[in-house]
Amino acid sequence: MMIENMETSPLRREVVNSDFGNMERPLIMKAEKLKTKDHHKNDNANKQVVDLLHIMEKWRDQVNEEKRQYRLEKMEMLRERLEMDKERLEMDKERLRLDREDKEERIMLMDISGMPHELQQYYRRR
C-alpha cells in the first residue's frame, strides 16, 4: 500500500486551484448565525415580557392597596354606624322608661273611687 502524498493528490490540487470567492457559507454557519439573530430577538422579547410583568405587578400592588384602603374605610363606617345604633338603642330604652314612669304616675294620680271594685283592684296592683 502506498500512501499518496497529500500535497500532490488530485483532490488537494483541485481545492488549491479553485476560486474561493464563489464558495458559499456552510449551512451550519448560516443556521448558527440565524440562531444568534433569533436569540437577540428573543432577548428583546423577554425584556419586554419582564417589563410588562413589572408593570402588572405594580398595578396589582396598587389595586391591592386601594382594596385595603377601601376595607379600612368601610370598617370605620361600620364602627361609626354601630356606635350610632348603640346610642339610639340607649335613647329608646330611656324613652320607654320615661313612658312607663309617666303611665305609672297617671295611674297613681287617677281617682279610682268611682270605678267598679275589680277595676280598682287592678289599678291598685299596678
From TrEMBL:
Which InterPro entries does UniProt cross-reference here?
NAM-associated_C
Organism whose genome encodes this protein: Prunus yedoensis var. nudiflora
The name of this protein is No apical meristem-associated C-terminal domain-containing protein
Keyword tags: Coiled coil
Coiled-coil residue windows: 56-106
Q: Where is the No apical meristem-associated C-terminal domain?
A: 17-124
Q: From what superkingdom does this record's organism come?
A: Eukaryota
